[in-house]
């Protein structure tokens, strides 16, 4: 099949029912209708190894199969710092109401449509972020993080 998976001849008769059952488990996409480029809402707790490896199963990403994009709403900026030559990049530590936190990263901020939001950012601000889950191996250290593609103030 062209859906990126295979199925046995015996399992073909259960495919429709299994797909309908899986669809019913997906989050409510009504909130995403205004942003058709966002695939699903996500929480900070859901940015984890399980999600990363499940999404990796959808690869390879590229033309005709873009990387899934998620929206995390109303996160608190705990801290952030710029880094790199000319401080072109930013790392933001975001948290949710339960105290869970995650790192979000953006490269070449001056080229991003949300550069003005980053310029005004302060610890304690509440933001909505969009992006993807990725794994980095920078300097030999394995790190799971959220790659920023959009950021807006929540308040």
Can you put this structure into words, describing what you see?
With 155 residues, this protein is α/β, with parallel strands linked by helices. It is built from three helices and six strands, in the order αβαβββαββ. The chain has helices at 15-24, 49-56, 115-120, and strands at 40-41, 70-83, 89-95, 101-106, 126-136, 143-153. The protein has a five-stranded mixed barrel with strand order 2-3-4-6-5. The longest helix is centred in the first third of the chain and has 10 residues, at 15-24. The chain is elongated, with a radius of gyration of 18 Å. The N and C termini lie far apart (46 Å).
Helix/strand layout:
Elements: H1 15-24, E1 40-41, H2 49-56, E2 70-83, E3 89-95, E4 101-106, H3 115-120, E5 126-136, E6 143-153
Parallel strand pairs: 1-2, 4-6
Antiparallel strand pairs: 2-3, 2-5, 3-4, 5-6
Can you count the helices? 3
Principal-axes geometry comes out as elongated
Give the structural class. alpha/beta
Largest sheet: spatial strand order: 2-3-4-6-5
Radius of gyration: 18 Å
Main pleated-sheet profile: 5 strands, mixed, barrel
Mean pLDDT: 86
Q: Order of SSEs, N→C? A: HEHEEEHEE
- How many beta-strand runs? 6
Poorly predicted runs are: 30-34
Please state roughly what percent of the residues sit in beta strands, choosing from under 5%, 5-15%, 15-25%, 25-35%, 35-45% or over 45%. Answer: 25-35%
Helical amount among residues, as a percent range? Answer: 10-25%
- Ends: how far apart? 46 Å
């Amino acid at each position: 099949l062209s859906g990126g998976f295979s199925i046995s001849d015996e399992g073909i008769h259960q495919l429709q029912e299994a797909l309908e059952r899986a669809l019913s488990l997906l989050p409510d996409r009504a909130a995403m209708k205004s942003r058709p480029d966002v695939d699903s809402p996500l929480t900070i707790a859901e940015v984890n190894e399980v999600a990363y490896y499940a999404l990796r199963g959808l690869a390879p990403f590229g033309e005709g199969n873009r990387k899934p994009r998620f929206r995390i709403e109303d996160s608190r900026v705990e801290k952030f710092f710029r880094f790199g030559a000319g401080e072109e990049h930013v790392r933001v530590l975001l948290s949710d109401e339960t105290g869970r936190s995650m790192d979000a990263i953006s490269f070449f901020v001056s080229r991003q449509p949300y550069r003005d939001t980053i310029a005004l950012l302060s610890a304690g601000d509440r933001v909505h972020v969009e992006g993807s889950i990725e794994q980095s191996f920078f300097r030999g250290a394995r790190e799971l993080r959220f790659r920023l593609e959009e950021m807006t103030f929540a308040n």
